[in-house]
Structures are given as structure tokens and as C-alpha cells.
Write a structure and sequence with these properties.
heterotrimer, A alpha/beta (484), B alpha+beta (485), C alpha+beta (95), A: 484 residues, alpha/beta, 8-stranded mixed beta sheet, 11 strands, 38% helix, globular, B: 485 residues, alpha+beta, 3-stranded antiparallel beta sheet, 16 strands, 41% helix, 18% strand, elongated
């Protein structure tokens, strides 16, 4: 059952091949047997899951239940879940039990989906390797000495290990796409404003977006149907009709113009990755798509711009973690100042503290214009690059990551080396465009991802092309040796 | 050495919206601690702000009332600092593009002159919560109530155009009267609805260079503001004359203890690291919205003052006092219309009623005497049913809740006797009973006679239990005495 | 561009992070290398470009002024570090 896609599970439930309770129990058993090997899940909500499954079965028997009814999923531990600990991968929130649901969680609950638990992640979503979590690193099911990617490493590893058929995740600089690529699964970051940020713990407000992870593009489409909604509680939520993302999956790719940015194929790209990605593009060409070389000339500026904007916004977003209203408070504070400084120094890990300091620096008097102001201007340059490109192409494609999964500690001492992991994904967040990753090869026994970038609100087309790609290839069906 | 004082004010006005600026929690005053602080107000993780339309409208209305430009694409910034009453660790406020631009307000001074005071800008922001350091708290701890956190404020920043405490108070009072007249603020100073920060500096008269200024924060009464300013001016002048230098600092003034002190530097040069709030979008305001609000803007104090002069023939002085207090204005108009004597109405409202309210620490909305009741009483003075003196008794009785003017006049038999027949009888009786006084009157010089009338008046009023109509009595008395001459 | 130790201490105070001797050197080194990365921005020609936060020009939605939040003090204070009689308590603030 754990090898079925969500689409297959939906049919199975509808045809009474199994019940949601059986399905849920199956995944809960797998989790209890296997999760320790990968540390993908922080909190398992077994009892709650079975209760939801029972209710879902009743609803299914009445007929006309929503697509996600009875389907077990995992939520990244960045989404607030009413009555269930939401840690954001941090000691700061180890004891935080929110009395409210994120809109994303609410949408799935309303449709009758079953929450199996909360997945591990880089602390406060800051990282590309899931090495910074308070709850320990997540191991890549393809190679347990290697990282699964981050910050949604837990969600990605859980799906790769078949602990759940689908999961929610978030992407601020590549945190859905990069782990999806490193774990051999599919993941999508929607257009900024497509999915509500209410109840999703904020890292960088103008960049964060929630999105689905699953093994196939079709499954991502099913999940996105549920996740996407206009939410009045989020001022940045866009009031735009949500199409049925599964309706156009079958369209042909004939005549589709695919832009290949030359900047994404330069030095720094692992040769094996390049071969796999170019093969994937050739496959699409064979189906009738047209490949067009394009340029995104300001690509190089995206990493520096991101590493000013994201930490700056994060430094303000994380100020609320002060030990006053909720979360961690240090023992025996001698005065207020001590309480603040020690609660935050003890509650936050090193990477989080570093980013807060950088962010504070970039916003400081005297530095604002040169750093934050400048970065926000550069953002416009990057957006212009994409608008220009989309005048002549429909989609933009290239590698998701510069190389397959690296070993733990490989990027240890130099934070910049880690930051360069995101080199192909960051620009999409800066521009607010949708991006996704699908598996397109195995290099040195580890998966490699093909990135698809669409124009604003063009998720349906991206999922369509990804789905067509998955009809002619079987990378998405590959399983890590340890799992099969 | 003669000195000139330069004063600027920053005024925080709580907008009278039902809900907070960024959340739908109530702003009602006096709730139990933390019962009106929702997830957004508590800065719970993942919560987001959504802007209150009424707060925006109220800010626009203020801008229109001071003839300012309205910024049609204004932006919110985050002002970052740590304090327990600031749940997010930043305050959402406006810096670069405040919603209201430059405007001006006219103040009237005691000598009858007028002066225009410039307003640099006014912006929207959220209020912080409240901290308590005393009372029933565990040892060494302070308590935080976040009910107030998120209440919408407009911060009004004046130009440093004021040159005396009098001007500053006049400006503060004019702002108070404007915001209450257009109903964007309830004006309850004791509840913190308006708070004043005063920037004070001194310089030698004639100098065009500004001296170093100090800021005295959080004054919430006109009286305390006046005291604080006067003390600070004196302190600065003394300091400079003694060879010292005024340090730029923040000060607090305690109106009860009359002590002013420097705040221990909160943080050396707080770097607030302002940047545009990424959770909020630019606030676009259309011409149509501005026009709609302009049409619906309630009467402003200056316009009302002119109207009181032309409609009710009040003096400029009286009109100024009443028009600048919107509660008093509303009360006054009901009394004036109901009694048909605006002058009397003005006297009673400004005089007896205000005095009584002041002594009882009440305001017009809490007056035990309603405007209709007062109108009823003034109408009886106007139609000569009671004398002014009797009216005082009626007023006291109404204050105690004994009913309407007519009911009280009836119950206490206070109706003025104006029946000439009855009065003639009383006068005649008094004259008969006081032949010696009459004799004395007749034999006095003309110049002394007027004074002696008082004696007769006293007797007559006593004989009539105060109910004789004094003007008529006077007339009859003079007539009768003249007959005897 | 290297960042001075004094600067780090100031940043740590502004962001209320206790930073000890051991980590100062480490943090200084790492921050300097990140700042070298971001200095690359200076090479960009951004004359006459606006600072832009979001890709499409939209305006802030306005909410009707109606109360819809109820008293949830109990639920919120159940997860608070310290409270007393409905107040959140913190070590005394020195004015």
C-alpha cells in the first residue's frame, strides 16, 4: 500500500479495496518500524490519525467525499496544528502547542485527510541540509551518510522512505525543490500568494510559500488543489480562482517552448547532474517541445540578494520569540535583559543566531541602503530577467541543484558553501514565481532533479509538463535500495 | 539674557474603532487583563495582520480636518525593539510615507489673537500593551496586559512652532477638540485616549538656531503638560546660565509628585532598523474615498465657533469656549434650542453646570442633569416663571435627581409671583410695616436713595419667600415710593 | 569586508542574543564571509530602480471594523512560561 501514489490510493478507497483506517494503520506501523533510521518525523499523531481515519471512512461510505478524504499525509513541523506540538525544528518551540490550525492544515482537515504527524526540518526553515534541527539531522533514504536537503528534509525523506504518500512543506529559497531533488521525489513551490501563510511560522515573509511534496506530479496536483485558497487572514494571499490542477495533466507538450538559461549550466554544476538534466530536456524535445537557449543575466546576484533579504526579514520575524508569551524561557533569569538574551541564545541554534545577526546588520543604521535597500532593487533586476525570458518561452528548465546529495558535515565550516546549494532555486523566490522539481536521473547512486519554472500562476502548465515527463520516464518510480 | 522657548508636540491619539488595527479583537476599555488579546495581538507564531478599514478612514478624516494632503499610497514599516509590552518585538508603524502629510491648526490665545501651528505629518501605528510593576505580583516580577496591544493610533507630529506653555496647551486642546468633534477619538484623557510627548528647548531671544531639546513623554493631562513644560524651561535656562549644557534626553514627569526625571537611557541610541513590513501591502486610497469622507466630515470646532456667533449671537469668547469642547457644544445646543435663550443657555452650561461637573469629577456625558432638563429650567427663567436666584435651587434639586424643572418648581412652590396685583399687595404691606424706613428714604438725598431700595427689596423678597419677580417688584416699589414723595 | 568584534557585540545586544567569548571569534569569521558574499551586490547597477518586495502590484485589503475574536485567555495562557492573575509575568523592568 505504501507504494501506491495518492491518485491510486484515492481509487482504492473509493473502490473499497481498503479502508482509511487500514491505510492509516499501515503507515503508522511503517513509521514506527522505519522512522528511527531516517529521523524524518518529529511528532507522530497516531491516535488522532486513527480517529480521523474512522471519520473519513464514514464520510467515504456516504459517497461524494472530497479527493483527499481518508488519505494519510504528513505536515512539515512549521505549520501550526491545533493541540499538537509545533516545534519548527527548534528548542525554542519544543514545548509550543498552538491552539489554532494553519490554513493549510485546516484545508486538509476540512477535506478529511488524515494527519500522521509532523516532519523534521532545518530550524526555523533556515538551511539546505536538515542538519540544523534541534531534533537531530534527517538522513537521506538513498544514502544515510548524506543529507536529504533542506529545509523540508523531513517531508522529502518521509516520502522517499514511503512513510506517507504525500506531505506539506515550505520553500523560501528552494526548501521544497532542493530536498525533492536530493530525495528523488516531486515537489512544487507555488506562486507567491497562491497558498495562505496563516499559521505557517514565518521565516522570510516576502519569500515563504507552502507547497506539496509527493512522488508524482499528479499527486502534487491533487495536494495543491487542497492547499491553494484565497485567505482573508493573510494580506498577501491573492484572490484568484483556483483551477483544478489535475484537469490539464493530459495535455500534450507539442509546441511548448522551454527556455534553458545558460547561466544554470556553467561551472559548479556536477557533470553527472548536467548529463541527466540534458537527457530529460531531450526527452521532452522528442515529445514535441522546443528548447530555446535564454539568458538570465543577473542570476549571480540572486544568492547575495537573498542572503540579505531573508535574514533581514527573519531577524524581525523571530523577535517575537522572547520567552514572554510562549516557547522557551531560560532558567532563573536575573533580570529582563538576561531573560531575553539567554532565552534566545539557548533556544535558537547557531545557524538561526547567525542569520539573525546578519539580518540585524543589514538593516542597521548606515547599512540599510547598501544592503537591504540595494537587495530589494536587485530583486527587480531579477524579476525583469524572468519577464523578459517569458516573452519568448512558456517554461524555464534546468537543474534543481548543483550536485547530488552531499555528505553530512561537508559544508560544515563555510556557511557560504551551504548557501550556494540554492543557486538555481533562489531566483524564483525573489521573483515570486512558481517552481517545481521532478526526478530525472540517478548519479552516483543518488537522485538528481529537473527544475521547472513557470510564469505567475502557471502551476497547471508546469504540473502538466511534469506529468507528461513522468509518462515517458520512470525516475519518479525509483526507490532507494534500503526501502525496496 | 532673555530666552525664547521652542516647543514641539507628538500626540498619540487612540482611534475609536471597535477593533484593533490589525486584528478583530475588541478595543473596549476596562476589560479583564488579556481577555481582548487574540492570537495576532499576542504575536503567536504564524499570525498575520489585516488592516482595519475604519482606522484608515479615521486617519483620512483627521487629515481632512487639518487641511493636509492625504498620501494615496502609504506604507507600513516595522520599528524593531524589545520590550515585554511589544509582543512582536517590533511595532508596525509608518515612516517614509505616512497617510497624512503637512497640515495646520489654528489656536486662539487668551489675548484674543490667533496663531497657526504647523503639523508635520500624522501616521497610523499600533499601540503597545501595558506593564505593571506594583501591586499583587510575585516578588521581583512585572506584569504585562496585552489588551491594549494593537489598538489603532494616529501619531500627530507638530512643527516646533510653539513658543510658550500657553501655546502648547492651546494646541493640545485644539487637537482634542478636533478629534472629538469628528468622532474619531473619545477624548478620555484619563483612559489614555490621548497622550502627549513634549519636546522643549530654549535659545537666546533672536537666535535662529535651535537649542538642544529634551523630550518629556506620556503626559495625559493638560495641567500636567503645562507644569512639565514650565519646569523644564526653567531647568534648562538655569542649567545654561550656570554654565552647563542641556543633554538630549528623554524625561518623565510625574504629575502627582510633581517630580521630573531623566529616564535611565533605555538603550544607548536605539537603532530601530525600520524596513517596510512585508506582511502588509501598500494602502491605496482613491480620490472617491477621500471625497466621500470629506462630504461626511462632521462640523469642525472653528466652523462651529463661527456658527455659534452667527446663529446664537454668542460672544466670540463664549463661542470659543463652547465650540472647542464637542461634548459641551452638543449639550449647549440642546439647551439653547429647547429654551430659546442661547445666552442664558451658554451662561448656565459654561458656569453652574461646568462647575458642578468639575467638582464631581464628571464629564458632560455623565451629567446627572440632562440637556433637556436644563433646557426646561432655562425656559422657565426665560418666561419669567422663576428668577435667576430660584433657578439655582432648581438646578441643585435636578442635580440630586428630584425631577424636571417644572416638577421641582411645582413641588417646592417656587413659581415666581409675577401677578402685579399680588405684588402690589406685598409691597404695600412691607411699606406699611416699615414706616421708619420709608421716612428715612423720603428724607434722604436723591443720590443715597438707590442704595436704600435694597433694604425694601430684602424685606419684600423675605415676605414673598423669594418668589417675587424682582424686576416687577422693583418697578412697583419705585412707583409707590415716588407717590409718597 | 571584515566585521569588527565590537560590531558583533552591538548586533548581539540589538537582537538580544547572549554571545560568549568562545563563539565571538567563530561568529566573526563566519559573518565576515557571508558579508563578503553580499558585498557582490554593490557591483549591480540599480540606478532608478525601485525597491520592490512583491512581483505584482496589489493593494492592501481592508477589513470591516467588526469584533469577531472572543476571550481565549485561558487557552493562550495555558502555554505561557509564567502568568499571574491573568497577566504575563517577566523579571522586573528597570525604567
Amino acid at each position: 500500500m505504501h507504494n501506491y501514489t495518492i491518485a491510486e490510493l484515492i481509487k482504492g478507497l473509493q473502490n473499497n479495496e481498503f479502508s482509511s483506517v487500514e491505510l492509516t494503520q499501515h503507515f503508522l506501523d511503517r513509521i514506527s518500524q522505519i522512522n528511527d533510521d531516517y529521523n524524518a518525523i518529529i511528532t507522530v499523531t497516531g491516535e488522532q490519525a486513527l480517529n480521523s481515519a474512522t471519520l473519513a471512512d464514514q464520510r467515504l461510505s456516504l459517497g461524494d467525499a472530497p479527493a483527499m478524504c481518508g488519505i494519510p499525509i504528513l505536515h512539515k513541523d512549521i505549520f501550526c496544528t491545533d493541540g499538537v506540538r509545533t516545534s519548527c525544528g527548534s528548542k525554542m518551540l519544543d514545548n509550543f502547542i498552538p491552539p489554532y490550525n494553519a490554513t493549510v492544515v485546516e484545508n486538509f482537515a476540512r477535506d478529511g485527510a488524515v494527519m500522521l504527524g509532523k516532519t523534521n526540518m532545518d530550524e526555523f526553515a533556515m538551511g539546505s541540509s536538515n542538519e540544523t534541527s534541534f531534533y537531530g539531522p534527517v538522513k537521506n533514504p538513498w544514502a544515510t551518510d548524506s543529507v536529504p536537503g533542506g529545509s523540508s528534509g523531513g517531508s522529502a525523506a518521509a516520502i522517499a522512505a514511503r512513510l506517507a504518500p504525500g506531505a506539506t512543506a515550505t520553500d523560501t529559497g528552494g526548501s521544497i525543490r532542493q530536498p525533492a531533488a536530493l530525495c528523488g521525489i516531486s515537489g512544487l513551490k507555488p506562486t507567491y500568494g497562491r497558498v495562505s501563510r496563516w499559521g505557517m511560522i514565518a521565516f522570510a515573509s516576502s519569500l515563504d510559500q507552502a507547497g506539496p511534496m509527493a512522488r508524482t506530479a499528479e499527486d502534487c496536483a491533487i495536494l495543491l488543489n487542497c492547499m491553494a485558497s484565497f485567505d482573508e487572514k493573510d494580506s498577501t494571499s491573492v484572490d484568484k480562482n483556483v483551477p483544478d490542477y489535475t484537469a490539464s495533466l493530459g495535455n500534450s507538450v507539442k509546441g511548448l517552448k522551454i527556455g534553458i538559461p545558460k547561466e544554470y549550466f556553467s561551472e559548479g554544476l556536477h557533470p553527472g547532474t548536467e548529463v541527466a538534466v540534458r537527457k530529460a530536456l531531450a526527452d521532452l524535445e522528442a515529445q514535441g517541445a522546443e528548447l530555446v537557449e535564454i539568458s538570465l543575466p543577473n542570476s549571480e546576484l540572486s544568492v547575495p540578494a537573498y542572503y540579505v533579504i531573508a535574514p533581514a526579514e527573519a531577524s524581525a520575524n523571530l523577535s517575537r520569540f522572547d520567552g514572554v508569551k510562549y516557547g522557551y524561557r531560560c532558567e532563573n533569569p536575573k533580570d529582563l535583559h538576561d531573560m531575553y538574551c539567554r532565552s534566545r541564545a539557548e533556544g535558537f541554534g547557531e545557524e538561526v543566531q547567525r542569520r539573525i545577526l546578519i539580518g540585524t546588520y543589514c538593516l542597521s543604521a548606515g547599512y540599510y541602503d547598501a544592503y537591504y535597500g540595494k537587495a530589494q532593487q536587485v530583486r527587480q533586476l531579477i524579476q525583469q530577467d524572468f519577464s523578459e525570458a517569458f516573452k519568448s518561452v512558456d517554461l524555464i528548465m534546468g537543474p534543481t541543484c548543483p550536485s547530488p546529495a552531499f555528505k553530512f558535515g561537508a559544508k560544515g565550516d563555510d556557511p557560504v558553501a551551504m548557501y550556494l546549494e540554492d543557486i538555481y532555486t533562489i531566483a524564483t523566490n525573489l521573483a515570486g514565481l512558481p517552481g517545481m522539481s521532478v526526478p530525472c536521473g540517478i548519479v552516483e547512486d543518488k537522485p538528481v532533479g529537473l527544475q521547472i519554472i513557470g510564469n505567475y500562476f502557471d502551476e497547471a502548465r508546469m504540473l502538466n509538463v511534469a506529468h507528461q515527463f513522468q509518462q515517458i520516464t520512470n525516475w519518479h518510480q525509483q526507490t532507494p535500495e534500503a526501502i525496496s | 539674557m532673555s530666552w525664547e522657548t521652542v516647543i514641539g508636540l507628538e500626540v498619540h491619539v487612540q482611534l475609536a474603532t471597535k477593533t484593533k488595527i490589525f486584528s478583530a479583537a475588541s478595543t473596549a476599555f476596562g476589560a479583564t487583563p488579556n481577555s481582548q488579546a487574540c492570537a495576532i495581538d499576542l504575536a503567536m507564531p504564524g499570525t498575520l495582520p489585516v488592516l482595519n478599514k475604519q482606522a484608515v478612514n479615521y486617519a483620512i478624516m483627521f487629515g481632512l480636518a487639518i487641511d493636509a494632503d492625504i498620501c494615496q499610497e502609504s506604507v507600513f514599516e516595522r520599528k524593531n525593539y524589545f520590550y515585554p509590552d511589544l509582543p512582536k518585538g517590533y511595532q508596525t508603524t509608518q515612516l517614509e510615507k505616512p497617510i497624512v502629510g503637512r497640515g495646520s491648526v489654528t489656536i486662539q490665545l487668551a489675548d484674543g489673537s490667533e496663531k497657526a501651528i504647523g503639523i508635520h505629518h500624522a501616521h497610523l501605528e499600533e499601540d503597545a500593551g501595558k506593564s505593571t510593576h506594583e501591586g499583587n505580583l510575585p516578588h521581583g516580577m512585572s506584569g504585562v496586559d496585552l489588551n491594549r496591544a494593537g489598538t489603532p493610533l494616529i501619531e500627530i507630529v507638530s512643527e516646533p512652532d510653539m513658543r510658550s506653555a500657553e501655546e502648547a496647551i492651546a494646541f493640545a486642546k485644539k487637537l482634542h477638540s478636533i478629534v472629538t468633534s469628528i468622532n474619531i477619538c473619545d477624548g478620555e484623557m484619563s483612559q489614555g485616549s490621548m497622550r502627549f510627548d513634549v519636546n522643549v528647548s530654549v535659545r537666546p531671544t533672536g537666535s535662529s538656531v535651535l537649542g538642544t531639546r529634551t523630550e518629556t513623554k506620556n503626559l495625559n493631562s493638560f495641567k500636567f503638560m503645562e507644569e512639565a513644560i514650565e519646569r523644564e524651561v526653567e531647568r534648562q535656562i538655569d542649567l545654561i546660565e550656570d554654565g552647563g549644557i542641556v543633554a538630549q534626553e528623554t524625561r518623565l514627569y510625574n504629575g502627582d509628585t510633581k517630580v521630573a526625571k531623566s529616564m535611565r537611557s533605555k538603550e544607548e541610541a536605539n537603532d530601530y532598523r525600520y524596513f517596510p513590513c512585508p506582511d502588509l501591502l501598500p494602502v491605496l486610497i482613491s480620490d472617491a474615498t477621500i471625497e466621500e469622507l470629506r462630504q461626511a466630515l462632521p462640523e469642525l470646532p472653528d466652523a462651529r465657533q463661527k456658527r455659534f456667533v452667527s446663529q446664537y449671537a454668542l460672544s466670540d469668547y463664549d463661542a470659543n469656549i463652547i465650540a472647542n469642547d464637542s461634548n459641551m457644544s452638543a449639550f449647549f445646543e440642546v439647551v439653547a434650542e429647547g429654551s430659546n435663550n442661547a445666552k442664558l443657555a451658554a451662561n448656565w452650561v459654561m458656569g453652574e453646570l461646568s462647575g458642578a461637573l468639575n467638582n464631581a469629577d464628571l464629564n458632560f456625558s455623565g451629567s446627572p442633569v440632562s440637556p433637556q432638563q436644563l433646557a426646561g429650567m432655562v425656559a422657565r427663567i426665560e418666561d419669567n416663571s422663576i428668577s435667576g436666584k430660584m433657578a439655582k435651587l432648581v438646578f441643585e434639586a435636578m442635580w440630586k435627581g428630584e425631577g424636571t424643572a417644572d416638577e421641582i418648581i411645582q413641588a417646592k412652590g417656587l413659581k415666581q409671583v409675577s401677578d402685579s396685583g399680588a405684588l402690589e399687595k406685598i409691597v404695600a404691606e412691607v411699606l406699611d410695616a416699615n414706616l421708619a424706613m420709608v421716612e428715612d428714604f423720603i428724607n434722604s438725598d436723591e443720590s443715597k436713595r438707590k442704595k436704600k431700595l435694597g433694604g425694601f427689596m430684602g424685606q419684600i423678597m423675605k415676605a414673598s419667600k423669594g418668589q417675587a419677580n424682582p424686576q416687577q417688584v422693583n418697578q412697583i416699589l419705585l412707583q409707590k415710593l415716588n407717590e409718597l414723595l | 569586508m571584515t566585521i569588527e568584534r565590537k560590531e558583533i557585540e552591538k548586533l548581539a545586544t540589538l537582537s538580544r542574543l547572549a554571545i560568549d567569548e568562545k563563539t565571538i571569534a567563530d561568529v566573526t569569521g563566519r559573518l565576515s564571509s557571508v558579508l563578503a558574499l553580499v558585498d557582490q551586490l554593490q557591483s549591480a547597477n540599480t540606478d532608478s530602480l525601485q525597491e520592490i518586495s512583491r512581483p505584482f502590484h496589489t493593494s492592501q485589503r481592508l477589513r470591516d471594523d467588526e469584533v469577531s475574536e472572543t476571550d481565549q485567555r485561558e487557552a493562550f495562557q495555558a502555554i505561557a512560561p509564567e502568568t499571574h492573575n491573568g497577566l504575563f509575568t517577566v523579571p522586573k523592568m528597570i525604567e
